[in-house]
Amino acid sequence: MDDNGRRGTMLGPASVDATGEDFSDAWGRRWIVVGEVVSQEIDIGAMDERRSVDYVSPPEPDPRTLSVEELAEKLRPRRLAGGYEYRLEQPDFEVAEKILAMEEPPHTEGFRAQEAGFTQEAEFIIGTDDRSRLEAPRFWPGSANAYLAPQNCTATMIGPSTALCAAHCFYNGGWIASSSITFGADTVAPTAPFGSFLADSLTIPGAWDVAPSSPGGGWDWDFAVLEFSPARPDIGRQTGWFGTAQNFNLAHGMVGYPTDKPVPSSWIKAGTFTAAPGSRYEHNIDVWPGDSGAGAYYISDDARCAGIQSTQWRTTNPPRVWNEVRRWDPTTHNFFHAYGNWPRL
Fold first, then answer.
1. How far is CA 147 from the centre of its chain?
2. When comparing pLDDT for 301 and 84, which is higher?
3. Which residues, at least 6 apart from 35, have a Cβ–Cβ distance to it below 8 Å?
4. How far apart (Å, rounded) are the C-alpha atoms in residues 175 and 173?
5. 225 Cβ contact partners less than 8 Å away, ≥ 6 residues apart
6. Segment among 143-157, 256-270, 274-288 with least mean pLDDT
7. How far apart are CA 135 and CA 292, in angstroms?
8. What are the residue ranges spanned by the domains of the chain?
9. 216: pLDDT confidence band, cut at 50, 70 and 90?
10. pTM for this structure?
11. What DSSP assignment string belongs to 75-100?
């Protein structure tokens, strides 16, 4: 139970009760309706996520170098629920203060659903495709990862009713339409072992609105909170979920739905984080468009997500290719705990 005794209470409108009117949530925060959403139909997986630039601007300052006022404004959330967009009436200074006061986010625990006895080797050589297809994604760890259609992205469960994903899978100058979210999806039966559905609400940082136009910068805000309660409060108990932790040194794995393979088929791969520019980790995990939004978890008995797959980059002078995740840190931890509905520490 959290300090205010509100665990299990929706912190914003769910799709079942969104009315398109202003409201105050369970924490007393005032949300203002922006308007009814007309979603775009964009296939993220078909876009060139390997962004080719000859000059990559320095990353934005780590969010924790900002003032309380600046950080609160950049994080001021944009939420989609029941076909309407909502914004917080005022920046959430309490969340910003928690982020700036937190040296390292506390771990959150995971829960494994039924396993299929899968093992993996934490080895990767850049230039060699080391991906392996999960033959039974209805079992752990495939069960905790979802295929998003039609935009072709991946989402990963991190709590009983909460999943993480990338903001660019849902917003590109306007909201991107989703028709289904399918955990453990496969091209062979059972193709949707837990059913297909949509999130009750979706929340992204307001700063993401301009992020895609900034090559090399702005991607610090590329994260999204997917909420599946109260319509499906037990989905995490069926799929299992990864815990979360800030981590750099250990080998990491990822499960995603790459578009160069039969869609939707689940593929697992492994590698290491190689550098940490700002709030992002460079890595050598073998990702492909369609893996966007997948959680990168460190390979251990208590696997926890330490990053959210965001982008791929390529420069011609000098020639170089690398991948990036948005790392799990005090900013993402506090944003997810403030605007999600899952056990709080």
1. 12
2. 84
3. 84, 85
4. 7
5. 162, 163, 164, 202, 203, 204, 335, 336, 339, 340
6. 274-288
7. 21
8. 23-339
9. very low
10. 0.91
11. H-EEEEETTEEEEESS--HHHHHHHH
